[in-house]
Specification:
This protein is mostly helical.
């Protein structure tokens, strides 16, 4: 009796379907990195088929990262004052990063050149222009804010993914040191333990916008 060979259904892939699966994978609890092999399994396709649509894993991660940057940008009120737009962008970037931590961590090493990233850059540059800064100060304040917001959001997202349900403490555990050798740590250790990542992220945004106001006023 002849044995019929197993027939594998051919799965039709396209970039949108791959990105949707990548987002679903990144949103799963405990996922700290995107695996192309696991992504292929989710899609019911050979992992190598993904590379027909994205030349490398970095290209795939750029597409996924740009998607969450675009999502953050879309939730900013374009009619709000310049400093409020910057605050909202930082807040929404954190929300989206926490939703997809395995993607957010790539923001500190990858540049997407996509509409999400370019739109966010444009928003920040225009906000600092509206604040009244010189061209050089616009660039400097943009770089400060972009670096602070992206790295801060990525760090918080990763910490939450690794320890879900825990508070966003800035220190993993209290600093314990001999007060005779480290008197300043002994004096401020308890206060340092009270610091929260989200508060520091948003305080940094406030400090950068305050710096912009001072720079504009001094022109």
């Amino acid at each position: 009796m002849a044995v019929k060979a197993a027939v594998r259904t051919k799965v039709r892939l396209d970039p949108d379907r791959i990105i949707a699966a990548g987002l679903e994978l990144a949103a799963r609890p405990g996922v700290s990195a995107i695996s192309v092999r696991e992504l292929g399994t989710m899609l019911g396709a050979d992992p190598t088929a993904i590379y027909r649509h994205f030349r490398s894993k970095d290209d795939l991660m750029r597409a996924l990262l740009d998607h969450i940057l675009a999502g953050s940008l879309a939730e900013v009120d374009a009619g709000a004052p310049w400093d409020e737009r910057l605050r909202q962008l930082a807040e929404r970037t954190l929300v989206w990063a926490a939703r997809y931590p395995a993607i957010a961590v790539e923001s500190v090493v990858l540049t997407t050149h996509g509409p999400g990233e370019l739109g966010a850059v444009e928003l920040m540059l225009d906000a600092f222009r509206e604040a009244g800064l010189s061209d050089d100060e616009i660039v400097r304040h943009y770089a400060l804010l972009a670096s602070h917001s992206l790295s801060g959001a990525a760090g918080i997202a990763r910490a939450r993914a690794e320890a879900p349900g825990e508070e966003d403490a800035w220190l993993d555990e209290p600093l314990i040191a001999d007060p005779r050798r480290y008197p300043m740590i002994a004096r401020y250790g308890a206060r340092l333990s009270e610091l929260r990542d989200v508060d520091l992220l948003m305080r940094g945004v406030e400090m950068i916008t305050e710096s912009a106001r001072r720079a504009a006023a001094s022109r």
